[in-house]
Amino acid sequence: MAASTSSTETRPKLIVFDLDYTLWPFWVDTHVTPPFRKSSSGKIVDARGATISCYKEVPKVLKKLNEDGYTLGVASRTSEIQGANQLIKLFGWSKYFKYKEIYPGSKTAHFARFKKQLEVPYSDMLFFDDESRNIRDLKEVGVTSILVKDGVDAKVVEMGIREYRNEHSA
């Protein structure tokens, strides 16, 4: 069996996730009611008391990517900027996301800011989103982009990293 080449394998310099229907199963600007808080039982709830949850594997996936040394970011076109940031904090994800672009507009604008902040080309980025138009727009500028159908899980992320490596192999 060959030795692991994980330390020498091509890795994205930034992995970015959309929020709505990618990390959690709702639109933060229409399906839930901010402000959000933790209830006495420790659950995250909205202003109406409805329980808010993310996709099941997301906390484990973000923790693993962080432990593996990946730099993570989020890009969301939501108009509910404060609510999205509040949920990221309540879910305990602030420690994982070094870069956040959360505001209405295009994903290409979000990624232009990532490119400028990190001083890396689009080709060094990997992106996960549930909307085909965002995937198409970012593939056009050179970002490896993965369409997420039923929320982020370990399998989707592994497939995305594999696709990134395939696109960058000699």
Describe this structure as you would to a colleague:
With 170 residues, this protein is an alpha/beta fold. The chain has one domain (14-25, 54-168): HAD superfamily/HAD-like (Rossmann fold), CATH 3.40.50. The chain contains five helices and seven strands; from the N terminus they run βββαβαβαβαβα. It has a five-stranded parallel sheet, with helices on both faces. It is globular, with a radius of gyration of 16 Å. Residues 1-7 have low confidence and may be disordered.
Shape descriptor reads globular
Q: How far apart lie the N and C ends?
A: 23 Å
Q: How many structural domains in the coordinates?
A: 1
- Tally of helical segments: 5
What is the C-alpha radius of gyration, as a whole number of Å?
Answer: 16 Å
Please give the share of residues in helix. Answer: 25-40%
Order of helical and strand elements: EEEHEHEHEHEH
Mean pLDDT: 94
Structural class call reads: alpha/beta
GO molecular function, one term: acid phosphatase activity
InterPro entries: HAD-like_sf, HAD_sf, HAD_SF_ppase_IIIC, MDP-1_euk, MDP_1_eu_arc
Pfam families: Acid_PPase (PF12689)
Organism: Photinus pyralis (Common eastern firefly)
Q: Would you summarize the structure shown here?
A:
One of its GO terms (molecular function) is acid phosphatase activity. This is Magnesium-dependent phosphatase 1. This protein is an alpha/beta fold and about 170 residues long.
